[in-house]
Fold:
Amino acid sequence: MFLVDWFYGILASLGLWNKAAKICFLGLDNAGKTTLLNMLRYGDLRQSEPTQQPNSDEFSIGSVNFTAFDLGGASDRSQNLEGLLCQGGCCSLHKVPFLILGNKIDIDYAASEDELRYHLGLTNFTTGKGNENPSDYNARPIEVFMCSIARKMGYGEGFRWLSQYIE
Ligand SMILES: Nc1nc2c(ncn2[C@@H]2O[C@H](COP(=O)(O)OP(=O)(O)OP(=O)(O)O)[C@@H](O)[C@H]2O)c(=O)[nH]1
Structure:
């Protein structure tokens, strides 16, 4: 019973209760991928050593599978967002929704949402944060949400946005 309540609590807070999905986290070194994974898995902040070798970490809650590809010390920054988005339309991620989390907004000098959108080339290109009608949507859903995993802020809204594109 406790386990079911825990499953329900975490998935409902992310809008993922009754959804089946594979959610993959990709990010630069030090972005907070492991911290987010630990927050989802254990519900708290845990320190971990910076990743020195490419690896991945995976766990499931209910029918939702979370995987973080931690490129760490071997990160190749040419694998940027543009590459991931496969703008040539050639790849299997063609219509997969992208949630971009701008983490660490608790830090004074953190980039603003507008700055992040600008530097990612996403100004005026994102889907919108409201409840779109997913069945009307023919393009890849993509949106930016700013967050602080340390303060437990922002990423829940991002996941709930994402959840509307997951069956
Ligand atoms: N201030 C602040 N620090 C954070 C936040 N999220 C993570 N961190 C810190 O950022 C550092 C890197 O976090 P990780 O989760 O290890 O980052 P990662 O993306 O897994 O990094 P690699 O292992 O290098 O790929 C750690 O010291 C975290 O405590 C946040 O929201 N705010």
